[in-house]
Amino acid sequence: MRVMSGAAVRGTVLGAGLSVLLLAAAGCSEFNRxxxxxxxxxxxxRTIAEAFARQFDEEADLRIVLVDNPDPSxxxxxxxxxxxxxxxxxxxxxxxxxxxxxxVPLYPTVLHIAYRLREDNTDxxxxxxxxxxxxxxxxxxLPGSPxxxxxxxxxxxxxxxxxxIDYVTDGSGCVDVIVIYAPIVPELPKPVLDCxxxxxxxxxxxxxxxxxxxxxxxxxxxPHLKPFVIPAGTYGALTPAPVLTLAxxxxxxxxxxxxxxxxxxxxxxxxxxxxALANVQPGLFQRLTDQxxxxxxxxxxxxxxxxxxxxxxxxxxxxxxxxAEVMVSLxxxxxxxxxxxxxxxxxxxxxxxxxxxxxxxxxxxxxTAADSASxxxxxxxxxxxxxxxxxxxxxxxxxxxDESFRIFITLSNDLIADLRxxxxxxxx
Length: 428
Prior knowledge:
The strands form 2 sheets. Strands 3, 4, 5, 6, 7, 8, 9, 10 and 11 form a 9-stranded mixed β-sheet that branches. A two-stranded parallel ribbon has the order 1-2. The chain is rod-shaped. The chain is α/β, with parallel strands linked by helices and 428 residues long. 28% of the residues are buried. It is 48% helix and 15% strand. The two termini are 48 Å apart. The protein has 13 helices and 11 strands. The longest helix has 55 residues, at 316-370.
């Protein structure tokens, strides 16, 4: 069997360690190319998010993975703040949070207020919204959602106690009023189709925009909201005439801990994939440009998004600083591990030379106990054989030519001299 030298062993260990280090670094780099997006609570937003993530699976050099909210009653931003997700889709009416940053406005989301026509409403006229809210069952999203907060604020301003509204949150059964922020999509939810005849509530005459009408006062107090007109026929029978409502941007936001270089690459990929995204949801992503306006964003702009707008591409250190930190940590661990291995090897060699010293003393003791010339000569021969074995062990690098080895040779030579009756050389 071929015995490897100590240098070869050390080279093999070091090479294996460097291979592990490089593989770990590559694994970290691959891991850092994945971003976790909170699965939206509304069905229409969830469908868009799934299509959005799927495009990255097929086309991009980074991945977006949807992660479910363990507690659907909590806002998506809580998952970002907890670090269990990296990205979320939120309407641009959330409260400012210093731990959240805007990546890009993705698409407009529109306030839809749908009411079910009652049998006594024979002329199909638009009823009083707050009378409908006080009389029927209402779906306005989950507690704390933008649509629920807007509805409750408007109810208070019009003398209706929000606590008296009969909210439905699980989507079961039919409701009389639906209040949600949603993008303009051609498909209507099945509950709306199955529950009777609905109409979209209009906040006024579409021609009144810019004339100082009541709808023009809303952006003064809620600057993120803008008047929006849903054209007649957009939703078939739901929109027999144009509907004046409000719109707000749906933002892609990130927690601030996401690296600038990764957000830079994400934004570049989003804009590159715009045709593919628009093909999945026609008309939804048409406003995506490489010079978007974020002056009205609820949150500060992420530094990676700002770098993209300024075309300040991250340098190699910024792009791979996270990987470099991991590599330094792994290198430190590797060096520590190698030192421990070499230390163990040294201790094993020291233990071997100790065994040689012990055998030499035992040979001396046996010859002394026998107290005969033949026993002494046999002990001398055994000590010489022991020395030869030690030299062979040293040549094969199972023993080190260090101070311990020198002590053994000196000890065995002194014992041989004693057994032969030769006086030891005294100090000079």
